[in-house]
Protein: Calbindin-32
Organism: Papilio xuthus
Amino acid sequence: MLVELKACFMEAYDDNQDGKIDIRELAQLLPMEENFLLLFRFDNPLESSVEFMKIWREYDTDGSGYIEADELKNFLRDLLKEAKKINDVSEDKLIEYTDTMLQVFDSNKDGRLQLSEMAKLLPVKENFLCRQVFKGATKLTKDDIERVFSLYDRDNNGSIENEELRGFLKDLLELVKKDYDAQDLLEFEETILQGVEYSSDGKISRKQLTMILLALAKHNQEEEPSTP
């Protein structure tokens, strides 16, 4: 009976017939407002992980390293206002929306969102570090490095710092770890920066970024199986 039920379910909602339910297909199962909340950010992705980390800092008001239910509720309230969908949504409705988003994105079911779970709710246009050039397939050029630097140096002050640095490290961490939290990011930051003669001023320069990107390309090249 379960097999038949699954077959009926997949036939109804698996529009692209890939055997999986993706976000857009999942949204069809939700009431209209939850459907809207789910898809608004997928249709309007963030420019980069720098913006993501700024939003994370804004809503992780207690600095716990997680977005808890009340913080998520505030985020959803502001999201609805930003989209001009609803200006005055009741507290009960917001709690209902929060519960729905937690059910969808809280994959480890601890009642809050860690970094990697929030990143699914708040996607960015592209993790630039996933491009072929950083996989060792082609030689990394000065232009490639400059492009990455300008992507993360959002205030154009000549260094990558604060949320810019954490956005870069988040993208870097995603290449090696699917599920991660704020503590993982902190430990990763310490490991990466120790290798580039990092000073305690909380910034990285073009030279340090170059060292990290060259190490990344070299590592990926070594990881790829050699062709006979």
Summary: DSSP finds eleven helices and four strands in the chain. The longest strand covers residues 67-68. The first helix runs from residue 2 to 13. The chain has a mean pLDDT of 81.
